[in-house]
Structures are given as C-alpha cells and as structure tokens.
Amino acid sequence: MIISANERRRVARNRLPRWLFDYIDGGAGAETTLRRNTAALDRIGFVPFALRGAAEPSLKARVLGLDMDFPVALAPVGMAGLVSPVGEIAAARAAVGAGSAMCVSSFSLAGIEQIAASVDPARLMFQLYVFRDRAVTQDMLCRVWAAGIRTLVVTVDTPITPMRERDARNGFRSATGVSPRLAGQMLVRPRWLYGALRRSDRLIGNLVPYGMGTNLFAQAAAISRAMDPGLDWDDMARLRAQWKGRLVIKGVLHPQDTARAAALGVDGVVLSNHGGRQLDGAISAIEALPASLDAAQGRVEVCVDGGFRSGGDIIKALALGASAVWIGRPWVYGLATAGGQGVADVLASLRDGMRSTMTLLGAADLATLRASRAQCLQTESIQTGEGGAVVPFPRMAEATA
Ligand SMILES: Cc1cc2nc3c(=O)[nH]c(=O)nc-3n(C[C@H](O)[C@H](O)[C@H](O)COP(=O)(O)O)c2cc1C
C-alpha cells in the first residue's frame, strides 16, 4: 500500500515498543542535525523546464558497478530486523526485487551468510565497522567475501557513540538485559511482542561468533565499546590494499576527505551524517554535495543519505550530481508496518515520485537531469554560478585546495 513517509512513520510508532521506535527515529544531542537533513532538502526548490516531452522518464543508472532500475539503495541499519519477524532477509528480497540494492549492516540480526543466500549477492553491499579486535574484522571480511559480496562499505563516522537522549531516557544500550522499563514498553505492543517471541534470531547474528553478549541488549551495549575509535587513513589504505572488490567509505562530509578517499583509490563515498545520529550540529549530505563533487573530480562515485523522504528529494540530489541516494529510516518503517511488502511499497513510492518529478521538470533521463542542474535552486539565497547555473549551496572551493 502506498502511503506517505510521515504516515508510515506514524503507523510504525504505534506498532513498535517505545525504546525500539526511539532507537530508530532518534538522533544525537538536541537532534539539530536530524532536523537539518530534511530542512536542507526543503530549502531547495525546482525551476522546471516546460515543453520538453518527458512523459516516460528513465531512471536507470549504473552505480558502483551495478545496474539499477533507479539509483536508490537501502542504507545499513543496525538491528533493523528487530522490527519484524521477517527481518533483513525480507528487506533484501524487496530491494533486489525492485531493481534496487541493499547495504547490510555489520549489526544485522540475520547473519550475512543467510541474507546473501536469499538473493543475488551481487546486489548486496556489506557495511563494515572496524573493531578494536582486528581478528574480528578480518573474520568478517572473509565471511563477506565467501558469501559472494564484492562491495565493502566502511563506516567512518562512529569513533564513539554520542549521547542519544531518547535511548538514554528509555535505558536502551545501558541495560544488559530486559529491564522492567523495557519490558513494560514491550508488553503494550502485544502484536510486536508475539512476533518477537516466535522468532529464533533474537541476537545480532553477525556478532554471534565473537561472543559479544548472550542477549540483544547486552550486544547493543557492547558494540560501541568494541569499535575502534582510532581508525585512521592508514587503516583505510591497508583495507584498500586487502579488499579486492569495490571499496566505499561511508560517513564523510568534508570535501578534503572525499579528495583523500579518491587519492586512495576507493570506488565511492557516501556523504552522510549517519542520519543525524553522530555529530549533532553537522551539516547535511545534500549541503556537502557540491563541494565534495568538486573534490572528487569524477574519480569516485559520490552517494548521499540523510532525510530523503520523497522521490522529489531524491531527484534534487541526483540533479546536483549524486550517483545515488541511500535511505535509512523509511525502509525500516516499511518493514515494521508491512514486512517485505512494506519495503517494496516504500521503494515503489520513491520510484514513482522520482518519475513524476522528472516528468514535471522536463527531464527525460538522469543524464539530462544532471546536465541541467539549474533546475535546482536554493530559494533562500539564489546564487548564479558559472554559465548561468544556479547553485543551491555555497561551494567550499578553498576547502578542497
Ligand atoms: C536505527 C539506525 C541504525 C543505523 N545503523 C547503522 C549501521 O549499523 N551502520 C551504518 O553505517 N549506518 C547506520 N545507520 C545510518 C544509516 O545507514 C543512514 O546513514 C541514515 O539512516 C540515513 O538517514 P535517514 O534515516 O534519514 O534516511 C543507522 C541509522 C539508523 C536510523
């Protein structure tokens, strides 16, 4: 069923225990960046071209070596499978069935081997967190390669887990078992609880071999301590040398980091502030995009995520030159409300919204859209760039030097 992103979020809130909804929905600190992600997109307006005959636009794109029906992928979301008994496997099937792709989190409930065996693994990416214990990281890399996945996405914006007020209020991540408060919130969601009790995978499956806790709450509390806060560019260079497939760095915003990633020979970056869950006050990916594209100089593919809730939002990023847009919370709310079909509905609604936006803009395909980036403008302060193009956000040319 096609419903708006807001409505789906509302239904998910009514289905999930409070701590689980808050874990998904919330952000770091005062949630300034969380709000900024959507606000920055809202500040961009379209200037459509008339009479261009773009009645049936094509959204086809090749992203990170993958042919996609439309360049939207499911972003990695830790513990996403918890929202529905059908879990991440159903989400992966929905993504692949829609001609999209999925990046599986290190912290998925379903093990990466199970997910990869359920779909064509070529359409999956694996998101890696680098652990202090490098033996764990090595083992994960071997498992991912053996499962047939060739695109590795290393997340670099999580040296620590900052204060997330909603989690703190609920006692999630500090409890190492089911506290009375968490239990109470589950009891008032009997439908979710029934599904949760029936399932066999009540742990973060990918971590089971490494003994990071015997229940999900203990695992959730352990993982932020297990990640290596000292990860640096030397580590990335070593990973680049070791991983024979495609390598993507997720969680950069500064154009110098994109330039450095390009120099290292990685295949792509995902501009991201982790859905407003890490550095509160950080700018949004859509704001970072123009300068990062300048820095990339076509050497790496530049994807974005954070706050994309409609097809129109996605077209704004593509018009600015992003290779693809990743979505996080929307697909998880789809999974929470209607399982795999819910994820399929979310993707279909984004794809349809992208198509209608293209038609109304007068862009027959993505190449045409990108060639006329003047279709996007910042309504608050309109700046005319070179060649008459309208640039939505100030470039940080000096920062890329
Ligand atoms: C509940 C939740 C868990 C997440 N877990 C991960 C993760 O395990 N790895 C990762 O790289 N990003 C993770 N992210 C960030 C997403 O990949 C993505 O950057 C973000 O959700 C995009 O913003 P959006 O939710 O507004 O679409 C998580 C996001 C949420 C909401």
UniProtKB/TrEMBL annotation:
InterPro entries: Aldolase_TIM, Alpha-hydoxy_acid_DH_FMN, FMN-dep_DH, FMN_HAD, FMN_hydac_DH_AS. FMN binds at residues 76-78, 105, 127, 155, 250, 272, 305-309, 328-329. Keywords: Flavoprotein, FMN, Oxidoreductase. Glyoxylate binds at residues 23, 129, 164, 274, 277. Residues 1-379 form the FMN hydroxy acid dehydrogenase domain. One of its GO terms (molecular function) is FMN binding. Its cofactor is FMN. SMART domains: IMPDH. The active site is at 274 (proton acceptor). The keyword Flavoprotein applies. SUPFAM superfamilies: FMN-linked oxidoreductases (SSF51395). The keyword Transferase does not apply. Belongs to the FMN-dependent alpha-hydroxy acid dehydrogenase family. This is Alpha-hydroxy-acid oxidizing protein.
